[in-house]
Design brief:
The protein is mainly β. Helices cover 2% and strands 46% of the residues. 37% of the residues are buried.
Length: 295
């Protein structure tokens, strides 16, 4: 792990996959990240690139050739991710194309993931560089899992997610058999800015939102008030997820989405896919802010 600390927060990032795995209060050692209990879900905060979620049959088609990628792409659990740079307030990791990556993703790219500490917040920045001579097609996103409940003598049901605006958005349902997005939707909000957390909320997998007005969501405790918030102005999709038996909640900013049941698997026209011209760079960041009262 690589660590970074200021007067309020201490963070740790796994070198494998550049995965944020600890956010700790310096003042009182309160931990805000899920502990990746392998009996429930062994992730902390996977980085998602160049796809989000599942592909139909783990396969996409680019220029008449089929390629295979696992769910969420090639960064998660990847030992080829390397430490690129560390400063007094930031850590940057990189993954650069190789002969291995070209076999499953036929683009020459450089991906940089940076974590920057500023007071009581962590900015997570993704930089994608197209070093190829053709357009690069990709998605990118985060999957941070936050401890819930955070404090002893609390229950999961003592927590809510509070959105910055009143919402009417519906979740897009996942086909449980293949992990793809079905045609079905389900009401989640009823002109409300609050989503109460219960374990059975995730019995049908993640909540997936395509049209939220909010670009910030806070995790709040009924007894301790606001715990943390995630701001995601650069991201157009949001996933909310946990294993139904897990004491955590993932707040996932995405630029991209899993395949639909009806996909033709063409990578160029995949929903949410981004196109980056040769020689150009793309940046998107989200910010995790721990409430001042807790640090």
């Amino acid at each position: 792990m690589v660590t970074l600390e200021n007067k309020q927060l201490r963070i740790a990032v796994k070198k494998i996959g550049a995965e944020l795995c600890q956010i700790t209060s310096v003042k009182n050692n309160t931990e805000f990240m899920w502990d990746a209990n392998p009996n429930v879900w062994a992730g902390f905060a996977p980085n998602l690139f160049p796809i989000i979620g599942a592909l139909k049959n783990d396969t996409y088609i680019f220029e008449d050739k089929a390629y295979k990628l696992p769910k969420h792409g090639m960064v998660r659990n990847n030992a080829a991710v390397a430490l690129h740079e560390q400063t007094a307030d930031s850590i940057t990791f990189k993954l650069i194309y190789s002969e291995d990556t070209l076999e499953v993703y036929p683009f020459k790219f450089e991906l940089y993931i940076s974590y920057t500490l500023l007071n009581n917040s962590i900015e997570v920045r993704h930089t994608v560089k197209n070093v190829d001579d053709k357009p690069l097609y990709f998605s990118v996103g985060g999957h941070p899992a936050f401890k819930c409940p955070v404090f002893e003598n609390e229950a999961y049901e003592d927590y809510v997610l509070e959105f910055e605006q009143v919402e009417t958005s519906k979740t897009h349902l996942i086909n449980m058999a293949n992990g793809l997005i079905s045609a079905g939707t389900k009401a989640v909000f009823n002109n409300s800015d609050t989503l109460p957390l219960t374990h059975d909320l995730f019995n049908e997998d993640a909540l997936i939102f395509k049209d939220l007005k909010s670009k910030k969501v806070a995790l709040k405790s009924k007894t301790h008030g606001e715990i943390l918030s995630v701001s995601y102005k650069d991201f157009s999709y949001l996933g909310i997820w946990a294993k139904p038996t897990g004491d955590y909640v993932c707040i996932e900013p995405w630029l991209g989405i899993a395949d639909s049941d009806t996909t033709n698997q063409d990578f160029k026209t995949k929903e949410g896919i981004l196109k980056l011209s040769a020689g150009n760079s793309f940046k998107a960041s989200y910010t995790i802010e721990i409430h001042n009262s807790l640090v």
